[in-house]
Amino acid sequence: MTTILVTGGTGYIGSHTVTALIQNGYEVVIVDNLYNSSKAVLNRIETITGIMPKFYEMDILDRDGLDRVFAENSIDAVIHFAGYKAVGESVEKPLVYYENNISGSVNLYQAMAKAGCKTLVFSSSATVYGDPEKCPITEDSKVGGTTNPYGTSKLMNEHILEDVCVSDPDWSVMLLRYFNPIGAHTSGLLGEVPNGIPNNLVPYIARVANGTLEFLRVFGNDYPTPDGTGVRDYIHVMDLADGHIGAVRYAMEHKGVEHVNLGTGRGYSVLDVLHAYEKACGKQLPYRILERRPGDIAECYADPSKALRLFGWKARYDIDEMCRDSWNFTLQNPDGIK
Ligand code: NAD
Ligand code: UFG
Known about the structure:
Bound molecules: nicotinamide-adenine-dinucleotide, uridine-5'-diphosphate-4-deoxy-4-fluoro-alpha-D-galactose
Order of helices and strands: EHEHEHEHHEHEEHEEEHEEHEEHH
Radius of gyration: 19 Å
Structural class: alpha/beta
Number of strands: 14
Distance between the termini: 31 Å
Number of helices: 11
Shape: globular
């Protein structure tokens, strides 16, 4: 059986990916320090799949701990989700972000090299494209111009891993550039549980829909987009999880580094998403137009054809299904995953 180590496996995208891996016949070992997730996620994964994955409550900054994980398990490949992801917080605490997202990641890569496990799927982000020159964005578009330490940490990880692949041709590395993951598991058992007031659009709308927040603040309606509000490529987290199955399979058969977009190829505006959510929850949701949010770009959507070409993946869920599953999760888990 193929064994995959998943760092950050109890988090939002990690938990959906672990579920998909188990359902595709993989054995999974999770390393997570539970900084932004709870142990109860493991029970939810077991309820869905019938299998409880092996779990290490461990920080990727713990080098000896990582060596122990590789010594105790025969790991064939690693999917690396663990990291901090709050854009605004990264501006306030750059060193904390670089320590976790860079030092932690380098620790992991060193432990992999030591153990002779050189197959890796890394969670990168469309943020590496900065303000894109054109949409849809292809993987050969210019990268750089990131506007915050979080985004820069993703780009730095990409460069580190590119260098590793140059130095040692035995490595296989997939740099997956996610667009905007939203939605939740169709069972309603897994989903995103933001800490405090959400920064991201859909978790915020979910709180307006359940009455926790009064209205949506729409950050700007004077962008050069069809309705003036920002356009993004929202992707269902279950589609994203499936993309990792394809990527890990591909990585196990090919050496070298690949950069791959995971998006739907369709852009939706803030108001499009709001209206799709209104349909899902069956009520009108109040909003107000505010100033643009600093650092935001007008539009960002993927050309996802490389993922289709390399490993036969394309997104299946549409925006209505993404909002339906987000709302279902919100209703079923008023106190998060406990
Ligand atoms: P998440 O916060 O839900 O999951 C990350 C998990 O990593 C959490 O369970 C957390 O406890 C764990 N973790 C953090 N630091 C750790 C450490 N030092 N040691 C061990 N575990 C640690 O986030 P997510 O949305 O699932 O994102 C997963 C990955 O995808 C992240 O690397 C993120 O930057 C990247 N990504 C996310 C998005 C998005 O919009 N959600 C977009 C692009 C890329
Ligand atoms: N928006 C609002 N009101 C809100 C929140 C967001 O109008 O309360 C708007 C934003 O201005 C933007 C769109 O909704 O136009 C999406 O914003 P999000 O914060 O949901 O997502 P971003 O595209 O800004 O950022 C996301 C991830 C980042 C990642 C980036 C690029 O949060 O981690 O995509 O991949 F870096």
